[in-house]
Design goal:
By secondary structure, the chain is mainly α. It is built from nine helices and three strands. A three-stranded mixed β-sheet has the order 1-2-3, covered by helices on one side.
Length: 298
């Protein structure tokens, strides 16, 4: 039994994500230059954050296009799984950048240097404007990709608000230690999120069950029929964290007619629809039938 559920607003999503990617890449380059010119580790830390977002948005953009390609003999499930590879690469780049920022910022706690405050102020206003506009462009999107990226961009806006506040304070109070403190705070926030996401990505790579509660609910659905004795070789795994696959062997209590089996398949189809699996495969086994996979294992 196979079910396919595809929802695509692909061209619109690609255009919106493409816009956000272009804005982010240009601004990230400006940030690195600005951070160097203003001598601000806080701006450098935010540049690393934006670099990560640029990679995420670029990956999402490419995968949005790649995801439209038809499945083939090489990638029989399609190309959705490539997003996990993108997430791993993004995570490693961000960890490297974050470690570099910490090496730059921590020594400044004992010997803080005054950043170029006017430049910080201008960059922060520019950062709020650019990231705010990119978030606005993505806010009309309905795909999960766009919603996640929009959240990243709103985080960036809040980061730039923090830079703006610090730069205003530094105009009136010569407290240069605020700059490395802010950059270390940014960096630890980035690392916390990256490590959490990397853990989730690695689990999906290793085909861990994406949602244990869902696993129990699906098991209850399959065992809920009076015709079913047991289930085994029952698996739920995820292509990319969003599109899940379910397979199961269903052992029947007694031999049933083709008509009854067709009715049972329809019952399962309706009951499993709410889980929105991108693929489902159910194999029925009659009461006196040995499981083919278990025979093969011996």
């Amino acid at each position: 039994m196979h079910s396919h559920n595809h929802a695509n607003d692909s061209d619109g999503a690609s255009n919106r994500i493409g816009w956000a990617f272009f804005l982010n890449v240009v601004f990230t380059i400006i940030e690195f230059i600005g951070g160097w010119l203003t001598n601000s580790t806080a701006i450098m830390a935010d540049a690393v954050h934006d670099l990560g977002d640029s990679l995420s948005i670029g990956t999402a953009w490419g995968l949005n296009k790649l995801g439209d390609k038809e499945a083939n003999n090489t990638f029989s499930y399609g190309y959705k799984r490539f997003s996990l590879l993108g997430a791993l690469i993004n995570g490693l780049v961000l960890i490297t950048g974050s470690v570099w920022i910490l090496f730059e910022a921590i020594p400044r706690l004992s010997n803080p240097e005054m950043p170029q405050v006017e430049g910080m102020l201008l960059l922060s206003i520019f950062g709020i404007t650019v990231n705010g506009f990119a978030a606005y462009k993505l806010s009309g999107g309905t795909t999960l990709n766009e919603k996640i990226l929009n959240w990243h961009l709103l985080e960036d806006v809040l980061g730039w608000v923090a830079v703006l506040i610090v730069s205003v304070v530094l105009m009136f109070k010569p407290w240069p230690i605020l700059d490395p403190i802010l950059s270390i705070g940014f960096t630890l926030f980035i690392l916390f999120n990256v490590v959490r996401n990397l853990k989730e990505t690695l689990l999906l790579f290793l085909q861990a069950t994406p949602d244990k509660k869902q696993l129990d609910e699906v098991r209850d659905v399959l065992l809920g029929s009076e015709d079913v004795e047991d289930i085994h070789h029952f698996h739920i795994w995820s292509l990319d964290g969003e599109h899940n696959v379910m397979t199961a062997h269903v052992q029947l209590k007694q031999d049933i007619s083709i008509q009854n089996m067709t009715a049972l398949k329809e019952t399962f189809r309706k009951a499993l629809a709410k889980f929105d699996f991108v693929h489902t495969t159910i194999e029925f086994e009659f009461a006196d039938e040995a499981c083919r996979d278990e025979q093969d294992a011996h």
